[in-house]
Specification:
Blueprint: H1 13-39, H2 41-49, H3 54-67, E1 96-106, E2 110-119, H4 124-144, E3 152-163, E4 166-177, E5 183-192, E6 197-198, H5 201-207, H6 212-235, E7 258-261, E8 264-270, E9 280-284
Helix pairs in contact: 1-2
Length: 285
């Protein structure tokens, strides 16, 4: 009896490729799951990103610094080393210390929580800094306690560092007066202790051997990105302070406020310095 077996179907090349890719994908998935169990997901992420672009890792680090910006204000001068020959006004105090504190409130009138710094260096430039700080912040505090029924909320914090003989001081205040929008006001002072002079952002960029065009491009990109966010929120009905990326204020040579911490330069655009807003942009390099 003749038995006719069915002819064996020939498997196409395309099917072989698909089956092979599927099998490899399954193997990779099994390996990843196994490694995740063995190492943990965080360590696995770190292992996978090793060999990735440095810029991506730097961007992630800078995003973390931006998100932690509020935490840097500790009302003190951070530990430092310097061999600069600098004359103090008061030898019993550090180069920066809190000279004026006020925590006081009066119902329906004001609520104050202030720590105002003093730069303890004997020279004319620093004397002008201290005079400006006193006139801007202490006099505002003293005038506030004379008010009645204005519902003023006024807070002030600062942070100071000395790195590579550069003294950097940042002062941040929040001011809410009655029904007005809250203002975020930031002021910085940067002083070269060895050369006894104020130092600019341009000089800091040069000192750190950074490419000025790269820094400028980073600033422009951040401001453009923030303005895009503003437009998106505006389309949803929100009112947000608008940026003009073409404004000359964003040029490096016009930057007024920057702060040095842990080798990083914090370039700050606090729009509440001139307007009734708490909006701020921060670029870290």
């Amino acid at each position: 009896m003749n038995v006719n077996l069915p002819k064996k179907e020939k498997i196409s090349t395309k099917a072989v490729i698909i089956y092979t890719i599927s099998i490899i994908s399954c193997i990779i998935a099994i390996i990843i799951v196994g490694l995740s169990v063995y190492y943990g997901s965080d360590e696995l992420d770190r292992l996978i990103t090793i060999g990735g672009t440095t810029s991506t890792q730097e961007d992630e680090g800078e995003l973390l610094l931006v998100s932690n910006f509020d935490d840097i204000f500790q009302n003190k001068l951070e530990p430092y080393t310097t061999d600069a020959n600098v004359k103090k006004i008061d030898e019993s105090q550090d180069f920066v210390y809190t000279y004026y504190t006020k925590e006081e409130n009066k119902k329906n009138s004001y609520d104050l929580n202030l720590n105002i710094p003093y730069i303890n260096i004997d020279n004319e430039t620093i004397s002008q800094y201290n005079k400006e700080i006193k006139q801007t912040y202490e006099e505002k505090a003293e005038n506030t306690v004379q008010t009645e029924n204005r519902n003023i909320i006024y807070t002030l914090q600062y942070e100071a560092t000395i790195e590579n003989d550069i003294l950097s001081l940042i002062i941040r205040s929040n001011l809410k007066e009655g029904a007005n929008a809250q203002r975020l006001i930031i002021q910085t002072f940067n002083y070269d202790l060895k050369n006894n002079k104020e130092i600019t952002l341009e000089e800091m960029i040069e000192r750190k051997q950074l490419n000025a065009n790269d820094v400028q491009n980073k600033i422009n990109g951040e401001i453009t990105s923030q303005q895009k966010r503003v437009q998106d929120l505006k389309s949803l009905g929100y009112t947000i302070f608008e940026r003009n990326p073409e404004n000359e204020m964003y040029k490096i040579e016009n930057a007024k406020d920057f702060f040095i911490k842990n080798g990083k330069i914090y370039i700050i655009y606090a729009y509440g310095n001139e307007n009734l807003t708490s909006e701020m942009d921060l670029v870290i390099i």
